[in-house]
Amino acid sequence: MFDYQIERNKEQDIKAVNAIRILAADSVQKAKSGHPGMVLGSASMAYELWGYHMKHNPKNPKWENRDRFVLSAGHGSMLLYSLLHLFGYGLQIEDLKKFRQDGSLTPGHPEYGHTVGVEATTGPLGAGMGMAVGMAIAEAHLAATFNKADFPIVDHYTFVLGGDGCMMEGISSEAFSLAGTLGLHKLIVFYDSNRISIEGSTDIAFTENVQKRMEAFGFQTITVEDGNDLEAIGAAIEAAKADTKHPSFITVKTQIGYGCPAKQGKSSAHGEPLGEENIKALREKLGWKSQEAFSIPEDVYARYQCLAQNGEQKEAVWNELFAAYSEQYPAEQVRWKKYHGDVDAKALLEDKEFWAYEKKEQATRNLSSIMINRLKERLENLIGGSADLAPSNKSYMKDGGDFGKENYRGRNLHFGVRELAMAAIGNGIALHGGLKTYIATFFVFSDYMKPMARLAALMELPVVYVLTHDSIGVGEDGATHEPIEQLAMLRAMPNFQVFRPADATETAVGWYLAVTSKKTPTALVLTRQNLPQLADSSQEALKGAYIIADAKKEQADGILIASGSEVSLAMAAKAELEKENIDVRVVSMPCMELFEQQDEVYKEKILPRGIRSRVAIETGTDFGWGKYTGIDGANVTMQGFGASAPPEILFKKYGFTIENVVKIMKKVHDKNRKQI
């Protein structure tokens, strides 16, 4: 489809490759910090890919049909920054001079949303591999959804570059096993195989045949023996594109620190500046004429500008194609805009059918299932799934179809037992654009997902986490499956909202917040056991905390604060306390993070400073509750791990009973009354 080509020039290509190396060496040296070795070794493959095989337009970095490139080996960030500078993405030479400095556009590891052209925040090795799989899934689903005969409006590749460390991390195996199963042929992985790690040769800990492993996963495997052979690298890329049945894995054998005589092939090239004398030797070895730092000849810039114009032309051709598509399929064009736009929050808020519920007792995981299936009809671009737990998580979209190599239109994703990769893939789907995504597992297994959830928060990706089987309500499965500290763990994360609903209304609020969020991930923490529907729960839960039952007095004698399954316990305890003339308020607090975003007037209205007798009730650790109960209050929480027994036995064993809550509140109330 794209006829516009750049004429090859070997001398100019070598000079352009070396420009990447020089910029990386100079930037790391000026910062006195960084990782030059990987950049020196992989510059040729990056240049060949970006210059001749990757579809991208620096003048429109968000072009929907661009190829995606993820630098999974994020420590080699100067490789990406050099490319972005040379291709004209807006990074200036002054930005490279500020590498790793406060407030610069060139932080130590690439950050999505901070630097134009960075497709994913990377750094934790292997994470980029998982996110690339998510991007490839998104491309396959959107292509199956929108493409028509002669109108391949979604037709792009996902390229990801990583090294030995990325291949050692387990997340890569999880993600690639799934990618091979799904036959994601638009995924092309570059393996920068320099056989060096921080501690020395990778042979001390990593001797497997990586190519055989990838072949077993279902990848086409290709090997380039010389990492500086542009022609061989180019041929490998085209061979990868020619395989329309399998994802491709290209091993490129490189030398870390290439071109620096004293460092080449050594672990010392990995994570420290080369040194002034070594940089001088590097320039001589590469035949780089200028000794001035950051000095790039104009003919090199001209070469990159010419290559960038090629990408501009490719987008122009696509724009013509999309215009013709829109004319022939106007309904699809409207749908396309809806997929790539924001959720209509006002319409959803006013949608009475979305908020309707039955008054019978139900587990919040069941209520979440109802919400998912209502949202399926309202949000066509909703796609999600579970780590082999859909029947338990209640996360399956009825009649949504199963995503697989025979049906990329399917909206239900089956991740297998791969929680860490699932979370990375969820990030990749969100990063790609055009889709809303959720992922699901048992709450206790959020431990496996945490690193990728953290990246979602860093990148401001509104991924939804459906985390069921919360608390000791899991019961007979025992301590290994009963989450205790996980609420505190997730609540401690910046830009992350943890929503633990008490009933149907609050579950709907949680889902509403999750799908209308633009920059914040949301964890919905849901019960296995049935809960009553609370008569006075309301959309006030949108504020994170609200008065679900107030005292009859003008000022309450105390406040019971609870979340999730413990709200109904607090309500029952309130009724018992009234019999003993202790008139308390009950506050439902499904989301601490949202409550903290409210103004001081609202916070004071819900939790008046003058009411010091406060008791928090939650079947998790008390960590974090002191903010609301203070030194004069108390917490009915877990003080250790759970046990294996029926839930009703465990709730009684650990003090989650009406009698114990009443006793604790009376004790707090009496103590504070004596101090007045």
Kindly describe this structure:
The structure is a single chain. By secondary structure, this protein is α/β, with parallel strands linked by helices. It is built from 26 helices and 18 strands. It has a six-stranded parallel sheet, with helices on both faces. Helix 20 (504-516) links the parallel strand 12 and strand 13. The chain is elongated and about 90 Å long. The mean pLDDT is 97.
Topology at a glance:
Blueprint: H1 10-31, H2 36-53, E1 68-71, H3 77-87, H4 93-97, H5 127-146, E2 158-163, H6 164-168, H7 170-182, E3 187-193, E4 196-197, E5 200-201, H8 210-217, E6 220-224, H9 230-242, E7 248-253, H10 276-286, H11 298-328, H12 330-339, H13 345-349, H14 352-355, H15 364-378, E8 382-386, H16 390-393, E9 412-414, H17 419-432, E10 436-442, H18 446-459, E11 464-468, H19 486-491, E12 497-499, H20 504-516, E13 522-525, E14 546-549, E15 558-562, H21 566-579, E16 584-588, H22 592-597, H23 600-606, E17 614-621, H24 626-629, E18 634-638, H25 647-653, H26 658-675
Parallel strand pairs: 1-2, 2-3, 3-7, 6-7, 8-9, 8-10, 10-11, 11-13, 12-13, 15-16, 15-17, 17-18
Antiparallel strand pairs: 4-5, 14-16
Helix pairs in contact: 1-2, 1-3, 1-10, 1-11, 2-3, 2-9, 5-7, 5-17, 7-17, 11-12, 15-20, 17-18, 21-26
